[in-house]
Amino acid sequence: MSTLYDLAEYYKYRLKDVAGLNPKDAPEIKFLVVGPGRSGFALLIKIINMLIGHGRWHRSRFRQELRKYLSHASVGFRDTLFNYFINDVGIKPSDLFISGEFHSLTGGPKWLSRKDASKCSIRKYIGIRGMGDMSVVISMPKQALDVDFVAHSHYYPASWVNDQFFGANTRYSSVRNPLDIIVSSMFSINAIASEYIQRNLPDEDEATMRLELGRNKLSDINFIGGVSEVQMGYFTEYLMVRDLYHQMRFEDLISNPADTILGIAKSAGVEITEEDAQKMWDSISFRSYFKYHKHNYWRGRIGNWREFLINEHLEMIKNQGLDKILVALGYDPIEYIDESNYTESQVLLRDCVKRGVLYEGHRDKDLQTFAFNKSNIKADKYDFIKLDDGRDVEVERSGIKDEKMLRGMMDAVADSLSPINTEIEKLWQKYGS
Predict the structure, then answer these.
(1) DSSP labels for 46-91?
(2) Residue 125 β-bridge partners
(3) How does pLDDT run across 87-109, given as a tens digit for each residue?
(4) Which of 7, 285, 344, 423 has its CA 20 to 30 A from that of 106?
(5) Most distant CA pair in the chain, distance
(6) Other C-beta atoms within 10 Å of 59: how many?
């Protein structure tokens, strides 16, 4: 478990480059990044955080007080989760997996609530060895997201534009060829899977693990379809508002990093040299930026989809309409692959899809369960439990079928969140503007 000090440091470690901010006569820091996972999203956030150190901004009093409060409140929230599962349910600590990334109240994927305009939603992942895992969504006052200098989200790009609180932020978007996003997401290792590997498979070869887990997902045609549908939904909405964002293309950043960073700096109102931009890229490229999630980074290449997607995938994706999205984003339309040039992975996947079987994947079935992506996928073809009773916590998707245990967790989290959310609202009333 993290200590109080660790959680306090959570709010600092991504911001090492912005320690020397300018005085209060400067404008307040207000930036926003929206983009799909695996699109250069984390890179863009890191670049802007580094640029803040070159600019002239100040922290608002609300943000300062919010950061202090959340570093302490997160301890109680984290302890609520661990105490419930370990003490109330009787789960062994060695069987419970909640990444340190989720111990912080604001840690995890987040978005503006579409149920309540005053709230934001934050997703947490919880895994229990031998039982399965779940995604849990908590709701907080949306001002809680101001704890970060760069507010960020994978979801609903149109929602942020007209929001009363975030609408004035300087907005950036990360964009990548959706086909490469799909493939990259197959080989990504999520936070609870990473936690499991660190604690149980520390000597396992990472490249082999990724290949086995990725092939398993790629052999599931329903899984690929569900991931593709999420890309469709995101980019359809994004295209309606993309002119209101400063767009960064992942391909431009990789092929011409210094000029791309200079463009980002210019739109942020920060003056840096080409040498500064190149040094920034050299210091951040091709590595993970997470403190606890040690397996987030996978070095995929531009056009990587041609090595892993097969024609059956492409036909389904094209029929869903993603082909039109590709063209609208400035990428080439889908072209089928000459099967005589298939890679080893493509030959294996074609055989699995034609036979209607899944690639066996990793020998450790707990890891394979935790590695299954339960969020960025339309999952109507899978048998997950969903529980939502209108409070500030819901079970979004759970492979764990013990409904009594799930509802007990919801009760404990709701009780913990209630005073926290009230205090955040008080802080905003006192220090907000």
Answers:
(1) HHHHHHHTTS--B--HHHHHHHHHHHHHHHHHHHHHHHIIIIII--
(2) 135
(3) 999 999 999 999 888 899 999 99
(4) 285
(5) 67
(6) 15
CA angle centred on 294, ends 4 and 220, rounded to 5°: 125
* 156 and 166 Cβ atoms separated by less than 8 Å: no
Check residue 6 and give its pLDDT.
52
Residue 419: pLDDT band by 50, 70, 90 thresholds? very high
Are the C-beta atoms of residues 196 and 98 closer than 8 Å to each other?
A: no
Could you report the per-residue pLDDT of 163-199, keeping only the tens digit for each? 999 988 999 999 999 999 999 989 888 888 989 998 9
> Residue 25's pLDDT is what?
66
Q: Yes or no: say if 397 and 384 are a contact pair by the CB < 8 Å rule.
A: yes
Nearest CA to 344 out of 248, 162, 222, 215 is that of 215
Query: Contact, 259 vs 209, CB < 8 A?
Result: no
Token pair for 351: 């055989």
What is the C-alpha to C-alpha distance for residues 370 and 88, in angstroms, rounded to an integer? 23
Residue recorded with tokens 């245990």: 405
Both structure tokens of 402: 């013990």
Give CA–CA dist 29/21, Å, rounded: 10
* Token code pair at residue 350: 């074609």
> What are 324-339's pLDDT values in tens digits?
999 999 999 999 999 9
SS3 content of the chain, % helix, strand, coil (to 5): 55, 10, 35
Residue with tokens 């840690």: 107
46 φ, ψ (degrees, to nearest 5): -60, -45
Please tell me what DSSP assigns to residue 142: G
Contact 130, 95 (CB under 8 A): yes
Which tokens hold the place of 147? 């704890």
Residue 324 and residue 317: Cα distance in Å, rounded?
10
Distance between CA atoms of 59 and 325, rounded to whole angstroms? 39
- Measured distance CA(82)–CA(92) in Å, rounded: 10
Q: Which long-range contacts (CB under 8 A, 24 or more apart) does 342-350 make?
A: 342/310, 343/307, 343/308, 345/211, 345/215, 345/218, 345/307, 345/308, 346/307, 346/308, 346/309, 346/310, 348/215, 348/219, 349/215, 349/218, 349/219, 349/308, 349/310, 350/310, 350/311, 350/312
DSSP state for residue 117 in the 8-state scheme = T
High-pLDDT (> 90) share of the chain, %: 75
> Cα-Cα-Cα-Cα dihedral of 361, 365, 368, 372, to 10°?
120
